[in-house]
């Protein structure tokens, strides 16, 4: 089993994801430079947090056109597991693989803190290690994590079980307290909190380990 982790110019959390997967879960990682197209031999793909080029326009707005993401789209549409964390969540919305948009935090401040979350796994492949209504804590680190969508779309997402992570004390003004969404098929997950930073009790707890371990089936 091998997981592909996308690398953009300026990104940094790709290394955090690699550390969590290889160091904590013994899952091999292959870095995918943004100009690559070959996803052969991969069992899952992670679009990590940090930054991607062109974020000064709008987070993920330019990165969405990367050659590697054309292949990621095909992989996801074929049922392949795709995880987008923080900037990766922003990229997934820009690509249209997840609905809605991420905008500046309500108070226009960068947030770096632990966030208490409620999990509703529903049909999301990535969250089957958690129980419905389970409370977990994952770190957040973002300036543009405020999820936005229309009231009608939010109602549709909630009805379809696609709102799978909610903030218990909304830090950024996201509508519906949305912290994470899955697609209708359940194989694509985008979330603003960082599960890779909660895989070791010495660095941030263990609440993120089950999410990444879901790759093991």
Name the features.
two-stranded antiparallel ribbon, 217 residues, alpha/beta, Rossmann fold, nine-stranded mixed sheet
Describe the secondary structure blueprint for this structure:
Elements: E1 3-7, H1 13-25, E2 29-33, E3 44-47, H2 67-77, E4 82-85, H3 87-95, E5 101-103, E6 111-119, E7 134-142, E8 146-148, H4 151-159, E9 163-167, E10 178-182, E11 188-191, H5 209-213
Parallel strand pairs: 1-2, 1-3, 3-4, 4-11
Antiparallel strand pairs: 5-8, 6-7, 6-9, 9-10, 10-11
Q: What multimeric state do the chains show?
A: single chain
Task: Write down the overall geometry.
Answer: globular
* Biggest sheet strand line-up: 2-1-3-4-11-10-9-6-7
Low-confidence parts: none
Q: Determine the strand fraction and express it as a percent band.
A: 25-35%
CATH architecture: 3-Layer(aba) Sandwich
Write the CATH fold name.
Rossmann fold
- Taking the alpha carbons of the first and last residues, their distance comes to 11 Å
Give your account of this protein's structure.
Strand 10 and strand 11 form a beta hairpin. The protein has a single domain, classed as Rossmann fold (3-Layer(aba) Sandwich), CATH 3.40.50. It contains five helices and eleven strands. The model has no long low-confidence stretch (mean pLDDT 93). The chain has 217 residues and is an alpha/beta fold.
Structure at a glance:
It contains five helices and eleven strands, in the order E-H-E-E-H-E-H-E-E-E-E-H-E-E-E-H. It has 217 residues and is α/β, with parallel strands linked by helices. The chain is globular, with a radius of gyration of 15 Å.
